[in-house]
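> tool_call: predict_assembly(chains=two)
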Amino acid sequence: MKVVINSEERDVQDGLTVQTLLESLKLRPEATVVERNQAIVDRADYPTTRLTDGDTLELVRFVGGG
Amino acid sequence: MPLSDDQKLRYQRNILIPGFGEEAQAKLAAARVAIVGLGGLGSPAAFYLAAAGVGELGLFDPDIVELSNLQRQVLHATPDLGRPKAVSAAETIARLNPEVRTTTAQLRLAEANAREALDGYDVVVEATDNFAAKFLLNDVCLDLGKPLAVAGILSLSGQAQFIVPGAVPCLRCAVADVPEGVPTTSEEGVLGAVPGILGSIEALEVIRWIVGLWRPRADGTGALHSVDGETMRLNTLRVRRRPTCRCARLWSTP
């Protein structure tokens, strides 16, 4: 299926969860803010949130420096 | 109090902004803003708030100026090495705009002292260098009912939110708790222009709120502004209220 990640269209495997997507991209789930179709996904729901064809995702690394 | 002739000139470009006028300038002059952290984020925030004519700035930072600070912490200069950041910041601000009253505190805000320290301020700029302090200030400002600009930066990226308790989702609605294992700027560096952008966003949000330009969104969502200097993508994510969040008790509508 096709999803859009940070404005780039990508082919990903069907049924991928947010958690497995982040792991495949080598992003730390606890430190990545995920917006799926214009709503931020609750961190606790990453393992159960399955992506569907056409989803638009924004992945932002959450950082703490100042 | 009406503006003096000098003030009308100093703030002319503020006053000319559609929707501002002398009334907005008077609101800025009456405002008290706390800036917690006077480093990469706090520097641009303090500069722009002072230049804009905010009446009083509370300057909080426990640290002294170090050589490795100067590539990004533009409030401080080479002759300030070894001096408290709060004192250096107050002097820089006094040179820029002597009309701004400053209160300095060489203090690390923690659970025990933050409520008292921030009590007299209308709005708070979070500009600290660690997640624990960012989440603490989120929680304290929720308790005090004070608006909070909060941001974070690392290497080439950063994010910022403006939180109005009960009207905008809080930091914990976006990220429930302090994430583990995220590198710090002492490990992964940071380019000065990045906190330059994010600290300026914090100042802009605070000014918008003071002068009355700020409005809650009709759908109750908030904004998480993100800047990625590696790809040069600037983006705004939509933050929804999290029903289990500690800020939920402040919502007047479901």
